[in-house]
Amino acid sequence: MTYLDFLRRHGAMASFGYSMALMSSFGQTFFISLSGPDIRAAFGLGNAAFGSLYSAATLASGVTMIWAGGVLDRVSVRVYATAALAGLATAALSLSLAGNIVMLGLSLFMLRVFGQGMLGHAAITSAARLPSGVRGRAVGLATLGFPTGEAILPGIALAVIASLGWTVAWKMAASVLALALAAVLWLRPDGEAPASSPAGRAEPDATAPTRLSILRDRAFLAFLPSIVAPPAIMTGYLFYQRHLAETKGWPLELMAASLTGYALASVGCGVLMGFAVDRFGGLRMSRLHLAGLFASSLMLAFVTGPFAALAFFALTGATAGANNVVVPAVLAELYGTRHLGMVRALCLSVAVVASAATPILFGFAIDAGVTVESIGIACAVYLAGASALNWLLPGLRR
Fold first, then answer.
1. pLDDT tens column, 95-115
2. What is the DSSP letter of 44?
3. In what residue span(s) does the Major facilitator superfamily (MFS) profile domain sit (predicted)?
4. CA separation for the pair 148, 35 (Å, rounded)
5. What's the helix, strand, coil split of the chain in %, to 5?
6. Is the pLDDT of residue 79 over 80?
7. Which helix (H) or strand (E) holds 69?
8. Is-contact 273 140, C-beta < 8 A?
9. Are 119 and 24 in contact (CB under 8 A)?
10. Domain boundaries, the chain
11. What is the pLDDT, as a whole number, of residue 165?
């Protein structure tokens, strides 16, 4: 199928996934952190107190998604996205009106579970349920919504915060989400089928997996290190990017350009990986999708010089884009699409916990005197081992 034929037949569903990924930006860390200093000032919180509150909200949302993600297997994606958009709009409005710490914490939890959790989950899973011959391209297009939000929303939000205040910015976010909710209620994604219908099924769905059976499955356990690696390691690198820059001698003025390179590499590699998955399959491409992060970890260990920052972040971004496509494709090939919501939600919860842990682990290592070079070597070894395990996946397939 040519790309034009793909857009004619499945473009509406891919566009729906893209839109939901874009709207999930209002519950992502990059957007919430833009008003972080104002929130801390308004509630008299220090960095540690606000960070702890945010981490608690994120972990709680990850645990909630174990259940909430599975709901997508029992309802249509339209119903699921409607609930997520309504919840996220309510959360944005609640944050703008919060008058105490309890309401602040509850608002942050709702932003994370409805935004990063449910909307992001709906975006990827709806695209991943399409047939195997087009699944990679559909997921690749849907995931472009994430970097689109990262590219356009910070500038708009900072301008609104500077001129009108942070509470107005969140009220405007609630208004945008309300408009998106109205659009979803009015339109129906083309090709949508409830997971329980025949159209929502795919090949190995004869036996319905349970969460416990998945956690015991050898294929899942072999793929788990690859699921954990990108969110955990990239969160650690990005969280301590200032420390990396100071240690490696990277000029801070190059960091903005490096992060732009990260976003561009994520977009480009996500699209290319979509084509590769459709041609070769997710199981085969899982052997290669960690290569960018492996190379950037080796660069951290052995390469110096100011312009190494550009290559480091570009290679890291390449794995970020590839990971968004490969992981749902592999899960669909291993477990089918009928229960993909529950399977992916379980993986998402594990990834959230891992991404919350690495800033702490990296922090203890740095405080103990471990060099960034040693951290890079340790991460490269882990990534090599995770990639090696993926060669076993075809033989362990259910």
1. 999 989 999 999 999 999 999
2. T
3. 13-398
4. 19
5. 85, 0, 15
6. yes
7. none
8. yes
9. yes
10. 1-200, 203-393
11. 93
